[in-house]
Amino acid sequence: MVHSLTKHPQIVVIGGGPAGATVGTICAQAGFSVQILEREKGPRFHIGESLMPATYWTLKRLGALDKMKASRFQKKYSVQFISESGKESQPFYFFENNPHEASQTWQVVREEFDSMLLDNAKEHGAMVSYGLRALDVLMEGTRAVGVRVRDGNGQEKEINCDVVVDATGQSSLIMNKLGLKVADKHLRKASLWTYYKGASREEGLDEGATLVCATKDKKGWFWYIPQHNDMLSVGVVSSMDELFGPECGTHEEVFLRELERCPAVMKRIQLGERVGPFYSTKDFSYQSKQISGPGWVLVGDAFGFLDPIYSSGVFLALKSGEMAADAIIMGFARGNLDKHTLGSWEGEFLQGMNRMKRLVYAFYEGFNFGAFIRKHPEMKRHIIDLLVGDLFKNSVDEVALPMDAMRRELCDASGMEFAQV
Ligand SMILES: Cc1cc2nc3c(=O)[nH]c(=O)nc-3n(C[C@H](O)[C@H](O)[C@H](O)COP(=O)(O)OP(=O)(O)OC[C@H]3O[C@@H](n4cnc5c(N)ncnc54)[C@H](O)[C@@H]3O)c2cc1C
C-alpha cells in the first residue's frame, strides 16, 4: 500500500456524524492519517434515532458492536404499522428471516451514539477535532486539495490533504458549492417532533418497537420511538403545506392538531409528560448528481437522503461511509484518487438506495403492507429483508413487479403521479 509521505493528513473528513465517523475509522484502521472535523464544540443533539438491523455489520467492522451491546440504548426487534383507523399490522419481527443476533438493533440517543462512534474513531487512530467548521473545500481546478476551516476563536487556517470526504449531513458543503443538488419532487415533506417521558409502552419483545402510525386521511404519519430512560421520541411527517403553511399556527398548535388526527399515538402519550421543545425540519429529500470527483467523495446525507419513514438514514450513512472508505483505500493503493476510483461504489450503493426508495414512494401512495402480503404471502420475507436494511442483494428485487402493480392501481385510483424509481 502506498502511503503519502506528506505531513498533512492524507484524508480530511468534514463532519463527525455516523457517516464521517465510519469513513474516518475504517481509513485509520488501514493505517492512513485521518483528520475528522466537527463544527460543534462537543456532542450534539441530532434526529435519526431508530436504527435498522443492517447497521450491525458496519458497527461490527468499526469495532463498535461491544460498545453498543454494553450501552443502555433500547433494544429494537420489530417495526409495526398502524392505519389511520387504528388497525394494527402484525409486528414485522426482524428475526423472522434470520434468527441471528444481527436481527436485533437499537433506538439510540444520537448525542450519545455519535460521540461513541467518534471516540471509537479516535481509538482506531483518527484525529477528531470538535469546534472546527469547514468553510470551504480548496480546489486546484476540479481537484480537491484541502479545506479552509475556522476554529471557535474565529481563527482561519488551511489544511491540505489528498482526499476530502464530505460528511456534513444536510449542510452538504460540496453538493451546494458545486450546485449538484436535485430535490425529490415526489417527496416535499416536513417534520415536527418532540419528546415525552413516562408515556405508555409495550412490554417484553415489543417494548422497543418503532410504530409508524398514519394520520386521518393519510395526510401524514407519526413515528413513535421508545428510547432508554423512559423517553419517547414522537414526530409527525407530512407535506410542507400541511405543517408549515401560512395559516398553520405555532409548532405546538400544529403538533396537537396532528395528534388529534392520530388516536393511536394520542392514547399512548396521554400518561406521559412532554419534556422537550418542538423541533422542525423540511424539504429533506434530495440526491447529489455526482458522488465523487478528483480528490473528493460524498457520504451519508451529504450525498442524499430519502425520507425518515423506514429509519434508513443512519444505515445508509454507515454503509456509504464503509463503501467510500474502501474506495479511498483502493485509490491510495493504486496511486489514483480520481473521480471514478473514489466513486467506484456509486452503482451498487444507488441500487440499494433505490430499493428503499421504492418502498418510500409506495408508502406515500397509500400502499398497505397487510393487503400486499395477504395478496402475495411469498413476498413477506422480501419485505422483512427491506425493513431490516438488507438492501444489497438481488433477491429483494422479486418484490418490485408486484409492488409496482399495486402502486399503479393506487395511483390510478387517487390520480397521484406514479413515482418512477
Ligand atoms: C425528521 C427526520 C427523522 C429521521 N429519523 C431517522 C431515524 O429514525 N433513523 C435513521 O436512521 N435516520 C433518521 N433520519 C436520518 C438521519 O438523521 C440522517 O440520515 C443521518 O443523521 C445522516 O448521518 P450523516 O453522518 O450523513 O450526517 P449528520 O448526522 O447530519 O452529521 C453531519 C455532521 O457534520 C457536521 N457539520 C456540518 N457542516 C459542517 C462543517 N461545515 N464543518 C464541520 N462539521 C460540519 C454537523 O455538525 C454534523 O455533526 C431522520 C431524518 C429526518 C429529517
Give a summary of the structure in a few sentences:
About 35% of the residues lie in helices and about 25% in strands. With about 425 residues, it is an alpha+beta fold. Mean pLDDT is about 95; it is low at about 1-5.
Walk me through the structure.
The chain has 421 residues and is of the alpha+beta class. It has helices spanning 18-29, 55-62, 65-70, 110-123, 173-177, 240-244, 251-260, 263-269, 313-334, 339-342, 346-364, 369-375, 380-388, 400-414, and strands at 11-14, 34-38, 74-76, 78-82, 92-93, 105-107, 127-130, 133-140, 143-150, 156-160, 163-166, 181-183, 189-197, 210-214, 221-226, 231-239, 273-274, 279-282, 286-288, 292-293, 296-298, 304-305. The protein is 34% helix and 24% strand. The protein contains 14 helices and 22 strands. The strands form 5 sheets. Strands 4, 5, 13, 14, 15, 16, 17 and 18 form an 8-stranded mixed beta sheet that branches. It is globular, with a radius of gyration of 21 Å. Mean pLDDT is 95; it is low at 1-6. The protein has 3 domains: 11-73 and 108-183 and 285-344, FAD/NAD(P)-binding domain (3-Layer(bba) Sandwich), CATH 3.50.50; 76-106 and 189-282, D-Amino Acid Oxidase, Chain A, domain 2 (2-Layer Sandwich); 359-414, no CATH class. Helix 1 packs parallel to helix 4 and helix 1 runs parallel beside helix 9 (313-334). The structure holds flavin-adenine dinucleotide (FAD). The site of flavin-adenine dinucleotide has 39 residues, from helix 1, strand 2, strand 8 and helix 9.
